[in-house]
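Hi there,

I know you've been waiting on this one. I reran it after we fixed the sequence typo, so this is the corrected version. Both the input and the resulting structure follow.
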Amino acid sequence: MLEEVGIPRLVVGGLGSGSGKTSISLGLTAALRTRGRTVQTFKVGADFIDTAYLAHASRRPCRNLDSWVLGAEGVRRSLMHGAIGADRVIVEGAMGLLDGHGMPADRAASPTDFPGSTLEVARIIAAPVVLVIDAWAMGETAAAAALGIKQLDSTGSVVGVILNNVPNDYRRRVIEDAIWSLARMPVLGALPHIQSVHIPELRTGLLPLLQNPHVDEAIAELGEAVTRHCDLDLIERLMEGAHPVHPAVRRRITPSSPEPVRIGVAFDDAFCFYYSENLELLEDAGAEIVTFSPLEDATLPRDLGLIYMGGGISEAFVPKLASNHPFLESFRRAHAHGVTVYAEGCGLQYSARSLRTSDGATHQMAGLIPIDIALEAGALHSGYRDLSIATPSMLGPVGTRLRGHEFHFSHLLSGGDCLNPAYRMHDCDGEPLGCEGWTDPLMLASFIHLHFGQERELAGRLVAAARESLDQRMHSTLAGRGSLFAAPV
């Protein structure tokens, strides 16, 4: 493992969502790859859609740098681990450059701290920042925005501006002159409005990658635009000026057995939201990751110790999931035979008794949890969550503190009152939000997405639960009381 990270790197920040951070990040990634660079991408915060686009552009898994969930050391460790084998790093910011999860209580003592923000992450990883400004409906005011950012950036992380969506050459010259004259910041590039690029946006973000047939053409065109309209040589020199960082080495958990235990991970168009590091940490703790598709497969893989059902985004897949009766039955049989289940987001919905989609149709799901859920477009629950384990579970004893992120359009129709809650939950400002999730000795299901990198033992506990599940079923098999296999034979 590297003792220091000196890889050239750049953070792409913006004035807000929709400013073009993703387009510029994708364009820079594609342009650098055309130059022969091996680019590792990262995304600030808890985001799964942008990370899919960035991973597609770089051909490497994109990782999340989330200072609220992981802390400063966790962010640096994630940078170090992800940068192995790469020679350039592009980090896409979240929301506006200074936007985080709230201001410090004592603003007089720390007037330029913006906890959880893109700027905080840039400072943690000692990376220069380029500020993206959408110039379509702006002139000299862009200089005021750049100057304000510069004045609040106490460490001088912001090194330049890239203009996006520039309507014409005259507007570009006006804004470029104003930013240099008033803010003393260089404009490193100015991308015109590109009508042919198709990366549609939903109200909650970009169209999921797997639903966008134009992604390859869009990334290629953005790469060509960055090469043509940005000073890529200067941008690379600025990236090379990033100071080394020295993360604490992530200690590898020693597995309790030399033989890996198989953990099945649902992975297809419906189940595609995972922190890539979660799977790596499970492997480090002694797991063998085996993927399966609830959309396409008829049965689960055999000999699983744990089933990991992750998140998804589109209710368009619900009818197909509900109609795959052989797989639903395989999932029910696995749980009945003692296979442990860890479910987040879409995994919880799949495990419910029924799921009502926004068109009013009700679909029978796996029924592992006696609850009924409705999906509604206007019922967004989103934000960081501070958790305390309420019922002993595979994640730890009562009182164990965790941090996660919630993002879903669901509410309970019935059930839930008779179940053991997984967590007591607060928002990131400490406001109580009640109890969340459900757990029993063989299952934990929650709408909260956890990054296992926040606590060294978290992945190890899940692997231990998987191994215990497999051992118990092995003993039952030897005693002639059941089958070891998760799938029907």
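Quick highlight: The mean pLDDT is 89.

Best,
R. S.
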